[in-house]
Amino acid sequence: PLEMSAKKPVPFLRQVVSVRKKVHRDPRFDDLSGEYKPEIFTKTYSFLDNIKKQEKEMVQKQLKKCRNVEQKEKLQQLLNRMTQQEQAQKNQQKQRERELALKRQQRELAKQGKKPFFLKKSEKRKLELAEKYTELKRSGKLESFLSKKRKRNAIKDKRRLPSQKSL
After folding, report:
1. Which of these, 5, 72, 102, 114, could form a disulfide with 109 (CB 3.0-4.6 Å)?
2. Is 118 domain-assigned?
3. Where is this region: Disordered (predicted)?
């Protein structure tokens, strides 16, 4: 810091040597980090899938050996979370592949000289449901899925109905 004379009163707005302030940047929203492309991301970090698989196997082994009830419960929760994350990742991958197939189809139609036609969100949802239906039918789990769906809808309907209070 600058040395000031003790004989002069200190000015109200004194001159201070300016220090450059550090600018923090978030790589998620910064242009310097580039554009996020899920395909490239999955290829780059594909080694993580192998590590996750090994960890899951390790947790399964620990679960078999474990005798403590609390520890066993924690391991079971961890295993469930791992399987759910794996399932969610597979679903995301299927969704991306579906979207890419639609884009390719639109490009081919554009090359033929036709106008591009983009599906609405509701139509995409219908296609997704139809695909899920065929998948369940193929695996033989359709009946159980539909019965669960019926039960859920019945509970929702009961909630919506006005309560039967005695007048």
Report:
1. 114
2. yes
3. 141-167
